[in-house]
Structures are given as C-alpha cells and as structure tokens.
C-alpha cells in the first residue's frame, strides 16, 4: 500500500463486490447559496457507471432534497424554520434531486422514497426489497431518499447514513460506500486538530473508535461522522463492509472506480451469510407453521431450493406476510420441524394456494407476491 500525493490515506485495494449501496450527502450536492450543483455528483456518477458497465449493481441513497427546495423558495430557508416548512422544501426539491441524477445516466433513474418505518415493518420491508430487486433486474438505477415530507423524526435526525446501511442489508449488498466531505476517519476532527491521524482500517467499532467521531462539518448536511460509524455498525451486523471516502476529491473518486480506496475501510465482524443465518435462526417466531410434504422437504434439505406452493399442504395459525414461522414436514408420522423462514404469504393465502402451481397464484388470490412461499435466502434449515 502506498501513500498518495492527493490523500493522507494509504491506498488499499477494494475487495470484490457485485452489489453496493452508495450514500451521497447534501454537502456533496448543495450549491453555494442554495440549490444543487453537479460539481461533485458527476465524478460519483462516473464511479457508478464504470461499475455498472463491469456487470455490478449500485443503489444510490441520496440526500439533497431540502437543499434543492431552498433554491425554489429561498424565503423558507431561514434557520430554525418550522418542520412543516422543511418538509415542504423537501417535497419541492425531490424532483430537482432526481433530475440531477438522471442527467448523468442513459439508463432510467427510479425514485424510491422510504421511511425507517417502511424498513422496520416486515411486510413493507419485503415489498421494498422486491421493488428494488425488480428495478435492478430491469436495468434501472434506484435513487433512494427518506420520505421527508411525512417522516418528521427522520427528517429531524437527517439520518440517511443509517438509512443507507439498512438499505444495504435490504438489497443484500456486498459493500456500503459513504461519500463524505472529509478524507475518512481520523483520530480527531482534522479541521480543528492539526495532529489528527488518518485511520485506514477499523476491524472493530469499539467505544474508543466511536469517540473519535465529530459532528457535522457542513451547514447543509445534518449527519456527522458519528452517524457514519453508526451506519457502519449496522452494515457490519449484516456482514457488509463500509468504505468512507472524500467525494469532493476527484482523484479519490477516480481511484475508487478503478478498485483503489483512499479512505477508511470498516470491516464487518462476520460474513453476510453468517449474519443472515444467525438472524434467521434467532428472530422471534410467530405462532403457526407452514406444513409441507416429503418432496418439498427433500428439495429444501438436499437442493437448497425455495419453498413453492406445490409442496405446501397447509398452514397452522394466523400469521401474516413477512412473519417468521416454522416450516414443518407433515406426514403419517405427524409433524416435524425442519426449517424456519420468512413467509411471503399470510396463512390465509397459503391455505388457498397450497398444492397449486406458481402460475396459478394470481388467478387464485387476485395478486402475486412472487413464486415462493419462502425464498431460500429467507430460510434456514434446523
């Protein structure tokens, strides 16, 4: 690893990844005096394009709607403006924010507005994940922001860093890239401590490391380094590494597109698979179970297959879509628990589609949440 002439951080080689979330803060998009500027967004868009051309997938979590709204209605920008005024600015600026990103890409840009409640509620979580996966499959570029016009607490906290970490887990990303306005994590705030030293790698987010994070350094941004470390902790719990870098440094951004990091790598404590399996094994169970036949049980055990409705013989209890439930083999010997997983359908729906082909789901129910009753990624064998 070599020290560069343009960054105090030592060059590191990025690990291989196939899907990533890129979080871009307001400080990289806001123009002086209000509105948005493409000055730094262009380089970040080139990073996205280079990776998409290489066969990878990127989801952008972008702040900047409130800053964009200030240029449209500058009178509403006074410090201490009422929350409703800030929400109005977000509503006005959201279209400007999406237009800014669309100008850099030939592929369609899709706006996705989320609140933290969308991601805490398991059924809405599954709907959001299905939508994002479908957008990526269609070749679109999802640009996610908080739904600031209705999320009072989220807007107040300005917590797109943590939202980006949750989205990274939502889409099963391999990496979380956080573009900020400083070079990475230091032992102290380098803007006020001349002796602050760069930290190239963090293997564990200890209290000492968290104490090194300062506040927000920008008048337009609302998240500081502390929220970025909180985000890294959330991503790490899902087995996802986080990479902090200076999105204003064109050399750093170009290097990132070539697989070179000049910034801080925060290692996850475990693999994504291990984190996912741990959650599946220990998440609280709802009362009830999905009952399957011997053929479906063999497919789950021996082939790592998803559970399809044809192999389901019934459901016990009154669980809902998105609940964690037992999967039990039902035969002449009785019931035997063989797995647990997140059900894509409610117990009521499962009773109606059991022992039917996947192509019949929509004609039976009038809607379709996908071919799987439980997807293999949401299932763990016991």
Automatic annotation (TrEMBL):
Q: Where in the cell is it found?
A: Cytoplasm
Please tell me where ATP binds in this chain. 23, 180-181, 222-228
Binding locations of substrate: 63, 148, 160
Please state every residue range assigned to the domain named PUA. Answer: 288-374
Tell me the superkingdom of the source: Bacteria
The answer to whether UniProt assigns keyword Cytoplasm to this entry is: yes
Q: What is its main location?
A: cytoplasm
Q: Which GO terms describe its biological process?
A: L-proline biosynthetic process
Pathway terms, separated by semicolons: Amino-acid biosynthesis; L-proline biosynthesis; L-glutamate 5-semialdehyde from L-glutamate: step 1/2
Q: Which reaction does it catalyse?
A: L-glutamate + ATP = L-glutamyl 5-phosphate + ADP
Q: Which InterPro entries match?
A: AceGlu_kinase-like_sf, Asp/Glu/Uridylate_kinase, G5K_ProB, Glu/AcGlu_kinase, Glu_5kinase, Glu_5kinase/COase_Synthase, Glutamate_5-kinase_CS, PUA
GO terms of molecular function? ATP binding; glutamate 5-kinase activity; RNA binding
> Which Pfam families does this one have?
AA_kinase, PUA
Which UniProt keywords are listed?
Amino-acid biosynthesis, ATP-binding, Cytoplasm, Kinase, Nucleotide-binding, Proline biosynthesis, Transferase
Query: An example Gene Ontology cellular component term from the record?
Result: cytosol
What is the uppermost EC class here? Answer: transferase
Q: What is its EC number?
A: 2.7.2.11
Q: Which HAMAP family match?
A: ProB
Name the family.
Belongs to the glutamate 5-kinase family.
Q: What does this protein do?
A: Catalyzes the transfer of a phosphate group to glutamate to form L-glutamate 5-phosphate.
What name does UniProt use for this protein?
A: Glutamate 5-kinase
Organism this protein belongs to:
Stenotrophomonas terrae
Q: What is the lineage of its organism?
A: Bacteria, Pseudomonadati, Pseudomonadota, Gammaproteobacteria, Lysobacterales
